[in-house]
Amino acid sequence: MLGVDNDPQDREQAVVALWKYSLGGKNCIDNIMKYRGTVNLIVNLLKSESDSACEAAAGLLRVISSINLYRDLVADSAAIEEMTSLLTRSSLSSDVKEQSICTLWNLSVDEKLRVRITSSDVLPLLVKFLEDEDIKVKEAAGGVLSNLTLSQSNHKLMVEAGVIPKLANLLKANEEDSKVIRKVARNALLELAKDEYNRILVMEEGLVLVPLVGAAAYKSFRPALYSWPSLPDGTKIEQSSKGPSRYGASELLLGLNVDDKNVELEEAKMNAVVGRTQQQFLVRMGSIEIEDDTKSNGEWSSSQRVTLLPWVDAVARLVLILGLEDESAIARAAGSIADASVNEHMRTSFKEAGAIKHLVQLINHPSDTVRLAVIRALDRLSISNNVCRAIEAENILHPLTNLLKQFKSEISHSLTAMVVFEYISLEFYDGTVNGSNKGWDVVRHPASANGNDMVASELASRNNYLDRRQTIAGGDLVDSTFLSCLVDILKTSIPDLQRKAASILESIVAIEACVEQLISADIESGLEAVFRQKSLIEMEYRTEGDKPDLQILELEEAGLAVSAASRLLTKLLDYEQFRLTVKRDQFTRLLHAVLVSSIPLQNKEWVAACLVKLSTLSGQNSDFENPINMEVTLYETIPRLIEQIKSSFSPEVQEAAVLELNRIISEGMIDSTRAVASEGGIFPLVKLMENGSDRAVEASLAILYNLSMDSENHAAIIAAGAIPVLRKLVLSQRSQWMRALRLLRTLPT
């Protein structure tokens, strides 16, 4: 009766009867599958215009595909393609959707079939059905998507289809009617979150990865049951003049003892209170982590089991875990805090939830694993200035300095790196960082009514920074052991460590009392080690095309370290006692080698400045005849000016750069024109000649004319499109037309 030559009503009655019969179990399904071609006839009925026939056909295929033996047969009968076509119909009953999507759910169990489902047109339909009114349709769509995420190759397509926001909404909706929806949504998001980029997208939807540490770990939690309530960050709440209630309800229910008119809690503090209350309640009731069983974690190992929680609950739970006794749980919670601190909102939330005090206390934990995770968390949190001030208020500098002093003995390089970076973030967050003033250059807007307040605030910040630096230098933080440790870090082969140590020393040398100690600690050998970067030597003989991406990254890290060391050396040269001992010729040769190396252009600025200062102290002339100045001009100044002409969006910056470049070339420096050509300066000069101001056009013409004196540059000038631009200038009779004509005559046209 399923035959295509039979009456449509007979076919419909047959498929309905077979569907009902198949519900009897595997024996019934086996009896149906004895007849060859049955699946093909059932799939053909998916084209029927009758909803009843389509529902029965899809339902029968759902039952058949639940048996492993017949799953491939269903897929090979074009069921995926026909169901995709069926689901695209504008008017389709929820029952048909449910049965069709559930069939796909069964098929998606097979890894090789997931690729077919993802690459078909059904993926955007499944994402759309996550918002369907029928809860069973949403469950089925979520189930298919959850299975599809098990194949990592599908992740990119799924993310591009917009699956993360939809799944996040289902998980955050907290619909009690369907635990299935929450489970499949969580499983899918956990699989997607294994990729770092996708993890950030998940967190942007207000969900945070939280480690599952086991209910046993929470047994060490001890709530403060009989103390007056305080905010999670430790702020005490004032008691009102009213006495305590007869049965202590005023202490238990804070609202009974606080006048609402006098209490104004920020939203972040309110969320912290709500989150803490909910998580502590779950712990005390023994209900925490009940919903998140091992089956909801896919391929996560037992030591990496995680769940997803809305950010309010996640922040509170992570802070709660920090107060437990289990070392593994603490380390994992601190790591999750570091990963979740991706924006100002999350960093502030952790501060308000009281994470700072716990983390600072854990710096002295005996476990290296815990300390590393804690320092990493503080590192990420300290990106925010407000949070950084809260960290400093916990007197963190002493334990950080003590950790640094252990560098020679027991502390690992990775932990040292985090300590150094944290030290920089805390100590110099409102001072000079990487050679630029972060907060002291105040530009008052004419329309600002609070300009004086801004200036006063910045001056106070600067004075506070200077006072703090003097206090630290004069105290027991910066001593010979500490400085010797930083110098030893400079001698390591890790550019990131070298950069951070040099940045700390750069600020410390502003205090003259520390310079003598640095000289005694052999700061020169530390600086030499930075300037002798292994990656610089290995890259010297490579062409641009021979450099793998990883080695290019190493070169960039080396450039940052060299730049920081150059700033440090430049500041040390301000002191007479250092100038008397420094090996100027040695550092001149090292910096010259760095200057002509392949490090990024922006890192050569301080190298050039340091070279110029060394040459000045040596009594050499400051003109171009000085070989140091010549090298600086060829390898730093000219490339920097060309980069400004090429990439700046400001006509004023481009004009200033081309005028300076023209001045250098017009003074006849040897190899200056060759440097312009080799740095790719011809194309941007031609473009500026077409679109720049009159002064910029005139300077560009002068430079290009000097370049045209070398016939090797003719092909590049013509390829840059100079000929039509020059003809246009000549015909327009602009003030530069004579220069344009002269250049045009030198080119082979």
Automatic annotation (TrEMBL):
<feature type="repeat" description="ARM">
    <location>
        <begin position="121"/>
        <end position="163"/>
    </location>
</feature>
<dbReference type="InterPro" id="IPR021133">
    <property type="entry name" value="HEAT_type_2"/>
</dbReference>
<dbReference type="Pfam" id="PF00514">
    <property type="entry name" value="Arm"/>
</dbReference>
<feature type="repeat" description="ARM">
    <location>
        <begin position="680"/>
        <end position="722"/>
    </location>
</feature>
<keyword id="KW-0677">Repeat</keyword>
<feature type="repeat" description="HEAT">
    <location>
        <begin position="122"/>
        <end position="160"/>
    </location>
</feature>
<dbReference type="InterPro" id="IPR011989">
    <property type="entry name" value="ARM-like"/>
</dbReference>
<dbReference type="InterPro" id="IPR016024">
    <property type="entry name" value="ARM-type_fold"/>
</dbReference>
<protein>
    <submittedName>
        <fullName>Junction plakoglobin</fullName>
    </submittedName>
</protein>
<dbReference type="InterPro" id="IPR000225">
    <property type="entry name" value="Armadillo"/>
</dbReference>
<feature type="repeat" description="ARM">
    <location>
        <begin position="78"/>
        <end position="122"/>
    </location>
</feature>
